Amino acid sequence: MIIQACLNGGRMKDFNAAVPTTPDEIIADAAAAVKAGANELHIHIRDADGRETLKPDVVDATIAGVRKVCPGTLVGISTGHWIEKDDFRRRDYLQSIQVLPDYASVNMNEGDCEGVVRILRDRNVPIEVGMWVAADAKRAMEIGVESGALRYLIEIMSQEQANADEDLAGFDAILPTMEAKPVLLHGLNVTKWPLADLALSRGYSTRVGFEDGKLLPDGREAKSNAEIVAEAIRRKSGPKV
After folding, report:
1. Sheet holding 3-6, edge to edge
2. Using one digit for the tens of pLDDT, what is the confidence trace for 121-170?
3. Which uninterrupted H or E stretch holds 206?
């Protein structure tokens, strides 16, 4: 059971001034998050202008920089289609990265997810299987991604509690039919903390950080990813208040 720090996602400075949006900011923020207690890192690679990218030189430099300041910490990256908006370019970049991540997240709701999985497997990069709804779990089974998976990443995106509960119930029904793997469960914005608490109560891993929301449980806006991580660590080890 781990606490993963999701540092940025697609967020920009207008969301929170502390969102890391350049390679240097990501490296510094990663170090602070790990110091606050994060066990792993999930990063959306950015170029010098703050744009998400999978360009190999930027990925290589960022991962190398993070590893230098966070030795021994697993570093994962997003491979989302929206980053490059072109399946052929995404595949080419993923085949050309030299400093490989410790794992990569692949969204099962993307049309070319099977091709991305194939490339990552060929390069011995463990896969975090991203699933938003139960249909994504069915897709994961169809393409046979379970056997090489690091874990199942259950991402509840619904902002209405009833819908979130329904989505989670769908996963509760289908997970027993899948190959047993560790689970990381997380929410988004209003469901971030409730689902983090639920994940920890179930013995699942969870993740927190600006990618998934900027508010602390008491409604205050976090000043940093490190502050969010520290709160998650506190909730993991003590009463939820």
Report:
1. 183-186, 149-155, 127-131, 103-107, 74-78, 40-43, 3-6, 206-208
2. 999 999 999 999 999 999 999 999 998 899 999 999 999 989 999 999 99
3. strand 206-208
Phi, psi (rounded to 5 degrees) for 203: 85, 15
Quick: pLDDT tens for 165-217: 999 999 999 999 999 999 999 999 999 999 999 999 999 999 999 999 999 99
**Residue 46, domain extent:** 3-237
Q: What is the CATH number of the domain that holds 166?
A: 3.20.20.70
**Burial bucket for residue 45 (CB in 10 Å: 0-12, 13-18, 19+):** buried
Token digits for 116?
A: 């991305």
DSSP state of 215: B
Percent of the chain at pLDDT > 90 equals 96
Tokens coding 22: 């350049």
Domain count, the chain: 1
